[in-house]
Amino acid sequence: MNPFEILVQYWPRLLDGTLMTIKLTLMGALIAAAVSPVLALVRVHAASMAQAPLRIYVSFMRGTPILAQLFLIFYGSGQFRPLLQEWGLWSFFRDPFNCALLAFALNSTAYQTEILRGGILGVPRGEIEAAKAIGLSRVKTLRRVVFPHAYRIAWPALGNEVILLMKASALASVVTVFDLMGRTRQVFSKTFDFSVYLWAALIYLCITAIFVLLWRQAERRLSRHIGARHTPQATAQPLKETRA
Amino acid sequence: MFELFSYGDAGWGDEILQGLAITVQLAIATLPVGLCIGFLAAFASMSRARPLRFLGFGYTTIMRGLPEILTLFVVYNGAGLLINAALRWWAPEASPIDFSPFAAGVVALGMVFGAFAAEVLRGAFQSLDRGQVEAGRAIGMSSRQIFLRIQLPQVWRFALPGLGNLWINMLKDTALVSVIALDDLMRMTKVAVGVTKQPFTFYLLACLIYWAMCVLSELVLAQMERRANRGIRRA
Questions:
Q1: What residues of A are in contact with residue B65 (Cβ under 8 Å)?
Q2: Secondary structure (3-state) at A61
Q3: Superfamily of domain A3-229
Q4: Which residue in A36, A74, A217, B229 could disulfide with A113, CB within 3.0 to 4.6 Å?
């Protein structure tokens, strides 16, 4: 079969898989984005004893393969089935989508926390002192001064993290979630036509490219008051920052 | 509970160690392949010839944008098809060859490692002090000598932190080969889970082993960085 026939015949499946990949990535990234600011603040301000569990969590998430984390949640939950059933959580863990989402959100939270921590530490002290001097409360200082600047600093790195998460979401196919990778493997096992993998590669690259463009646009908007001095730095080149 | 992890027929300790050995072998076999690809791609993307530059940038951009597992499947399935197609053309009566999962793992992980390493190496070459190269030329060193005596020793120093990160990522990515049926740590864990019905215990053990390997790598890398920077005054 020629490559275009594959596309003509199976495009609904690939589209369905693409949407699943986007859904999984966005939901995982958003859940992590909701949790990580709080954890980042803990990492910056809390006493070092209080940080210990958080440090261990981040180190664990960075030091183990996402596939192992996914298996630990998806298959591992089976060991506690009676307990989970008692708590009414079993129906959650039985669904591979939920498990994959949980694994990706937990993983991304660890990375986003560290990235945001770097951003918060990068906010000049003078800005915080100025906020104090004009009488802003602590909460207001965080909301109006610290976080806006921290996010601006962290923005390119956060974009890279979302791209890495998108790539990692392909692992969900291993626990039978039909994302783009899952659909691709399904079509391949049916047709044994190799070109479907190349179409999948093309779609993944397109998702990344579109995302990078959107992210850069957002970055330009975030720093529009700074003017020409600031040059956007978001790249399509994720380099995973592994070491603590 | 500990008899589960013991040696011999009763426990799974020996099976899991065998898996660990495969994982380590895979990572160590991939490193030189990845570094070679990395250097080639880095030189290509720094080359004066435009087509080479295009090729280098294209390779690194595409490889870094694809999920590692997709690369692995493309290599595993595609290389097998390619080899057998070549074989049929070459010797029609020969029986088809199976591309081993280990080889596919080394090639795929090496390709991914190489793409990221190319960027690290390119950055390292570009952060070299240009004056030193000019000085080398001024005292009449050949470009080979300049490369070997001035550039390479310092590239090592600049690239080490980045390459260290890539090593750790690659170590974690080796878990993917369990999906193409290579008996690495992850797959042996899966086998143990199938028999003992204790998924959480065994996957947690696998996680802890990976974690230990990563922490150990970090310690060794920190030591190597200290050694690489021993002649440098801190700014």
A1: 163, 167, 204-205, 208-209, 236
A2: helix
A3: MetI-like (1.10.3720.10)
A4: A36
